[in-house]
From TrEMBL:
The gene is R3. GO terms for molecular function: ADP binding. This is NBS LRR resistance protein. It comes from Eleusine coracana (Indian finger millet). Pfam families: NB-ARC. PANTHER family: DISEASE RESISTANCE PROTEIN RGA3, PLANT BROAD-SPECTRUM MILDEW RESISTANCE PROTEIN RPW8. Residues 1-143 form the NB-ARC domain.
Amino acid sequence: GGVGKTTMAQMVYNDSGVQVSYDLMGWVHVSQTFDLRRLAIAITESFTRQPCAYSELSAVHDALKQEVLTKSVFLALDDLWIERQSCWQDFLRPLKFAQSVTILVTTRSKEVAQLVGTSHPFFLGLLPEDNCWQLFQCYAFRGSSINEKPGLVQVGRNIMHKCSGLPLAL
C-alpha cells in the first residue's frame, strides 16, 4: 500500500460531478477477509447512514434490495480482497435491483481486478525520484527555501530514498 489508491478513489467519490450523477452513494472499506454478511451490512449502513437493523444475510440482502430499487448507485469498495468469482456474484445479487450500478474498487491485486470484471483498470505506480523530491520539499521545507537549509538537503534525500517512491510514506 501507500501509492495513493484510497486517496485517488476519495477524489473521484467526492467529485461534485459524480455526487450529482447518482441517487445513492456509498463507501466501504473491505478487510482482507471477505465476509459477505459483514460487507452487506456495511454497504446498507453506508447507503442509509443508519445502523442496519438486520443480522441475517437474507434479511440484509432484502433491505439492501429495497434501498437500491430503481436508483442509480455509486459504490466504492476500498482495499477489496476476494478469492472466488462465486463470492463476487453473491455480493452483486441485491445490487442487480438498482437502475444502474457503478462500483469503484481499490485493490493491490491484479487478480482481484480481473475477478470483479474491471472495465477500466488504472494502475498506480511509484513516484519517480524527481517527483518524490519535489513532494518531500513541499512538506519538509514549508515556506522556506531549500537554499536556506543546505545542511538538511542530504538528510532529506536519504529520507526520500527510504520511502522508495511511495507518496504516502513521504
